[in-house]
């Protein structure tokens, strides 16, 4: 299923792949350059238990930006809400 989704990445201006093992760069610095000019944005949140390294690499190879929401591991539904709230704040 992820392979099929990766094929759709070119349909979006930016793809964010939320992965707890991604570089822990501050979101206030990392996100603006990725999303400020994006008119269409795809945010991918993993299943319970997270994504594998192979899945993250496949997403990165297809053009996704691997992003961590911080040091805490969030539940899937919480991570999605946190990501939307952050993006809404950044994009106004």
* CATH architecture annotation: 3-Layer(aba) Sandwich
Percent range of helical residues:
40-55%
Radius of gyration: 12 Å
**Nearest-integer average pLDDT:** 93
Task: Give the CATH H-level superfamily.
Answer: SPOUT methyltransferase, trefoil knot domain
> What is the beta-strand fraction?
5-15%
With strands numbered from the N-terminus, the spatial order across the biggest sheet is 2-1-3
Assembly category: single chain
Count of helices? Answer: 4
**Given this structure, which CATH class is correct?**
Alpha Beta
Shape: globular
Structural class of the helices, strands and pairings? alpha/beta
Largest beta-sheet characterization: 3 strands, parallel
- DSSP, total strands: 3
- Distance from first to last alpha carbon: 32 Å
SSE sequence, one letter per element:
HEHEHEH
Describe the structure.
This protein is an alpha/beta fold and 92 residues long. The protein has a single domain, classed as Alpha/beta knot. It contains four helices and three strands; from the N terminus they run αβαβαβα. The chain has helices at residues 2-6, 27-35, 53-61, 76-91; strands at residues 14-18, 41-44, 65-67. The protein has a three-stranded parallel sheet, sandwiched between helices. The protein is globular and about 30 Å long. The termini are far apart. The model has no long low-confidence stretch (mean pLDDT 93).
């Amino acid at each position: 299923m992820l392979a099929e989704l990766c094929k759709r990445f070119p349909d979006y201006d930016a793809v964010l792949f939320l992965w707890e093992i991604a570089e822990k760069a501050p979101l206030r610095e990392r996100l603006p350059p990725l999303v400020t000019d994006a008119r269409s944005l795809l945010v991918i949140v993993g299943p319970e238990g997270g994504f594998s390294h192979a899945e993250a690499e496949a997403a990165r190879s297809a053009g996704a930006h691997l992003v961590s929401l911080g040091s805490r591991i969030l539940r899937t539904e919480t991570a999605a809400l946190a990501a939307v709230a952050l993006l809404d704040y950044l994009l106004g």
